[in-house]
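To the wet lab folks,

You asked to see what we're planning to order before we commit. Fair enough. Below is the target structure as tokens, and below that is the sequence we designed to fit it. If anything looks off to you, flag it before the synthesis order goes out.
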């Protein structure tokens, strides 16, 4: 049996497979995702073209198609137009058939033209990478067979399955289904684990949806983004330029009234604001639920918890009925929900002037502090300190 040019011990084949698949992961997160799709950084042409060539060789993915589909995912997240939402298609389909959903959307010329603007359009992209996306993986098959013989075919198969499973399946599926949420964007994105290494940092998916243009996915001190470490190394070598990072929240404890800086900070950190609001009022809602149960009022505890994190209109019809009933029987729950909706409306007022936004936020804080709900009062006072 042909064993190839290189005769390695068993662990040598394992190491080789892990290295080449990890380079592919790095290419996806650094080049396709953070650089091309979101413009969070610029790469030196040598680095950029290396990743472009490597991804053509190891995955057959086209830069324009990948960037366009991902941008559409953010624009239409968890709607019928989202190319790969587990909330629409189900977790099982996205997890195991995510690559098929990707290929289906890649055939949608409207998606490519609308969302693929600004991606590479040079001679080699038009004549080779985009037009002959299957040649690369065929070359890789041949190289693997020559180097490793028949075991090279197994390595090639693993390389072919690596991105469809981890990127198309795990990130698009599990990353919108299971994990922890630091922020509250208007979707179900989650951070799968805080130590993002296996998929190059993509595990911090909730952070990414909160600050999509940031080149850095780690936000909290305990989170580790391996892709960001690679970017830092490239920046140190003058091979990358970071254009955007998630802004750091600043507080001015001397402030007692809202001003334009407060409004700007609240809007910038809106998903963190909503997350902190939900966390601050969690015990208050739990106590009110216990009170309602003593009065024999039907309460869907899960629905009330979800009310803290999203608009009631986005809940299933049955849950909406239960929440509406609970709100009608509890002034505290009604206040908590109403104040959350009014706060979220701040960054939806696209036609309001700066002065109107300041007045709106100041009025919100005054009513929060007059509500008699201590956690809401404390949250409002902290909000005034945003700078």
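Sequence we intend to order:
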């Amino acid at each position: 049996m042909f064993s190839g040019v290189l005769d390695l011990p068993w662990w040598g084949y394992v190491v080789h497979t892990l290295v080449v698949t990890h380079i592919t992961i790095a290419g996806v997160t650094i080049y396709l995702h953070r650089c091309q799709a979101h413009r969070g950084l610029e790469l030196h042409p040598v680095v950029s073209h290396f990743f472009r060539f490597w991804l053509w060789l190891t995955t057959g993915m086209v830069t324009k198609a990948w960037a366009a589909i991902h941008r559409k995912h953010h624009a239409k997240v968890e709607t019928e137009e989202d190319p790969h939402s587990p909330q629409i298609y189900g977790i099982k389909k996205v997890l195991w058939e995510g690559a098929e959903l990707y290929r289906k959307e890649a055939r949608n010329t409207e998606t490519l033209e609308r969302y693929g603007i600004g991606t590479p359009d040079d001679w080699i992209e038009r004549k080779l990478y985009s037009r002959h996306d299957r040649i690369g993986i065929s070359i890789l098959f041949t190289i693997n067979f020559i180097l490793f013989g028949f075991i090279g075919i197994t390595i090639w198969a693993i390389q072919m399955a690596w991105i469809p499973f981890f990127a198309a399946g795990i990130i698009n599926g599990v990353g919108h289904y299971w994990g922890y949420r630091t922020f509250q964007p208007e979707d179900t994105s989650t951070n799968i684990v805080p130590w993002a290494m296996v998929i190059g940092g993509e595990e911090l998916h909730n952070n990414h949806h909160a600050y999509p243009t940031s080149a850095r996915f780690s936000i909290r001190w305990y989170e580790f983004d391996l892709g960001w470490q690679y970017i830092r190394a490239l920046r140190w070598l003058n091979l990358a330029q970071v254009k955007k990072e998630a802004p750091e929240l600043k507080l001015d404890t001397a402030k007692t009234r809202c001003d334009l800086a407060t409004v700007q900070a609240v809007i910038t950190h809106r998903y963190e604001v909503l997350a902190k609001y939900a966390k601050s009022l969690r015990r208050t809602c739990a106590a009110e639920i216990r009170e309602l149960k003593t009065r024999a009022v039907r309460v869907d505890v899960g629905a009330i918890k979800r009310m803290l994190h999203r608009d009631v209109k986005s809940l299933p019809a049955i849950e909406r009925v239960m929440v509406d009933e609970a709100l009608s029987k509890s002034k505290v729950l009604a206040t908590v929900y109403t104040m959350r909706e009014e706060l979220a409306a701040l960054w939806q007022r696209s036609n309001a002037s700066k002065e109107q936004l300041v007045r709106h936020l100041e009025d919100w804080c005054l009513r929060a502090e007059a509500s008699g709900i201590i956690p809401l009062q404390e949250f409002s006072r902290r909000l005034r300190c945003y700078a």
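Structural context that might help your review: The chain has two domains: 10-242, 260-384. The beta strands are 41-43, 195-196, 224-225, 240-242.

Thanks,
Computational group
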